[in-house]
Amino acid sequence: MSPQRRLLIAVLLALALPRFAAAQVANDFFQQNCSTCHTIGGGRLVGPDLKDAVQQKDREWLEHFIQDPEAVLNSGDPYALQLKKDANGIVMPKMPGVTPQMAEELLNMIEVQSKLPKSSLAGVTVSEQPFTANDVLTGREIFLGKHKLSQGGPPCVSCHTLGSIGGLGGGRLGPDLTLVYKRLGGRKSLGAWLTAPATPTMQSVFRNHSLQSAEILPLLAVFEDSSQQSQPANANSQIKFSLAGIAGALLGLAFMGWVWRGRIRTVRRALVSGAQRGAA
Amino acid sequence: MNVRSQVSMVFHLDKCIGCHTCSIACKNLWTDRRGTEYMWWNNVETKPGTGFPTKWEDQEKYHGGWEVKNGKLQLKSTSKAQTIFNIYHNPSMPTMDDYYEPWTYDYQHLFNAPEGTDQPTARPISMVTGELIQIEAGPNWDDDLGGSPVYAENDPNLKGLTPDQRAQLVAVERLVFFYFPRICNHCLNPACVASCPSGALYKRGEDGIVLVDQKRCRGWRMCVAACPYKKMFYNWNTGKSEKCILCYPRLETGQAPACFHSCVGRIRYLGVMLYDASKIEEMASLPDEDLVEAQRSLVLDPNDPEVVAAARKSGIHESVIESAQRSPVYQFVKVWKIALPPHIEYRTMPMLFYVPPMSPVMSNVADGTIHHVSDNLFHDIDESRVPLKFLANLFGAGHEEFVRYALRKQKAVRWYRRAVTVGDVEMATAERMLREADCSPEQAEAIYRLTSLCTFDDRFVIPPMHREEAIQMMEDPLEHKQGVGFGFLSGPRRGM
């Protein structure tokens, strides 16, 4: 290779690199924030497949929508309303970090990826085989934390409850997951969601402890099973939980009362009231 | 033989007039501070009565003192294991109500009350909460049989008395009571010291005074529960326990403790006794009926050369041995045997002894005349208004013979002196009584002198405490001799 050629390639590379780098940033951003609900050429999850989205709607509208979906919806835009309807009423959240520049790069990236025969952002493929009872059982153990998550994430039960786990249920910090399988639209989208959880709480908790596919599958199984079999935990179980707490406290107090039953409560007052009773 | 010295005490109950001067002297000197309002290191109780705190003698409730379990001497209130389990909640703790809620009066109201149709009053205010309170009880609520149907009738010492004897105690025309002043007994086998998880309580080696190290005390209050005489008090302000210190700062300067010094009836005696510390556990484990004798056997004769030699070997100063030889307490307890320990059945070996009180002469009416002398010269001791059993419960672990002996001797001395000075009693009768009461005329004279004519120096034979030597153990008194100090606090000035 002649030096001139080499120089030419270097210059070309140097020119191409920022563009290439920008595409990489958009790709990562999509992976982290969008892939939960969207694929590019992988079919519909919660949100629509974005393959050829740039061809379907004008760029200005798309940039606008990506930056603030709610504002576009509130303006009564018919296309946006249609999208909401298609997504079972789930509204796309306003993602932090989507600047006008980022929106443009995302659209560029989507355009590029749409042209590829197989996009790297086509989403996970989840096996379509029906789950076995064994999968449900493993999933249940993972959910309850009996089986530790391999990357060290906290077990689901510490924040969530599930109608099928029985007992006093799980945590009440996060939402009840009994019907999450139906709510998020089935195996594929829930699987995508679990791969990269999108809500701020889940994201911060699992950012460094991502769920592995060997864990996601059994979890999907237990969620599917629970959505078919049980009702979400209702207020009743909360009352039960409180009552059990009160009963436990009373038992504890009764036990202490029994252990120290010989303690001095009063001497003089008992003496006086006893004498008064005797006199009456 | 492990000879130690103990500053011991005798209270002559026959002389106590129940004036409470001792209590006030102590209160003004030591417990007139925040957190100590309710404490009475010295208090005077009326017997029969329930005392302070209410019914303190009822160890079924308070679990004070020692008991012999499986042949071993053990605290009733706690053990090493129980201390851990009960450390944050001691189940045998008297409540504030069992002492009393200390109060003062709203005197300001007398001056700044708004004009009204009636005189303003100074209402009682709690010294703990500062709120207006309804006074329900005080430290001496049953004084002079006040509230008898409640308090006097529930005196734990009435145990074992027949219904007749009980009725006799409260029958109006035969009503009788005596006073029972109490301070810390500075016991030989103190339950408070044994119970302390922090090791803050100790018995001073040189004089046996039991003290609380205020720096080491952590306020666990095991001592409050363990002391059967309820003479350990918890200061709620400092969070530490306090007790009678037998006015050791006064003793160290040769003065009698404040309550002794101020005693109007001159009932209090103080002096050193030498005792054998190696036998305490053995003696305190004996059955109830042997305890009085056992304690006497711990006290050693200070004139016995063998004892003196052993005392010297234990490092007891010559002047203390000499002081023990002149001790009035030794005479009362060991020689005359008329001073008895209170509730020896608690097995703490108290070193405060009581001369049991004589009760009024029981007279009987026959043929319209009053007779008070019968052929049985000691008839009114066994039939005295205060039943012997009651005194025995207090001073003899329920066994009457010790109390009877002490009372007979006292009565014999009285009759002997009556024969000497008044002459209305035959000397032969008096001497017969002395013989029957195991008392020689010389002893009777000595008892009479120490009881009736005792001077200050007869009553208080305070051993030299030799603080000047004790202090050398901790610091060198000559350390600063000829040293250069920090200069004058207010410098000398020249001129006018």
List keywords for this structure.
heterodimer, A: 280 residues, mainly alpha, Cytochrome Bc1 Complex, Chain D, domain 2, 3 domains, 13 helices, 58% helix, elongated, B: 496 residues, alpha+beta, Alpha-Beta Plaits, 4-stranded mixed sheet, two-stranded antiparallel sheet, 22 helices, 31% helix, 14% strand, globular
Describe the structure.
The complex is a heterodimer of chains A (280) and B (496). Chain A is an all-alpha fold and 280 residues long. Chain A folds into three domains: 113 residues, Cytochrome c-like domain (Cytochrome Bc1 Complex, Chain D, domain 2); 97 residues, Cytochrome Bc1 Complex, Chain D, domain 2, CATH 1.10.760.10; 40 residues. Chain A is built from 13 helices and no strands. In chain A, helix 9 packs across helix 11. The model of chain B has no long low-confidence stretch (mean pLDDT 91). The termini of chain B are far apart. Chain B has a domain of 195 residues: Alpha-Beta Plaits (2-Layer Sandwich), CATH 3.30.70. Chain B is an alpha+beta fold and 496 residues long. In chain B, a hairpin with a 2-residue loop joins strand 3 and strand 4. Helices cover 31% and strands 14% of the residues of chain B. Chains A and B meet through helix 13 of A and loops of B.
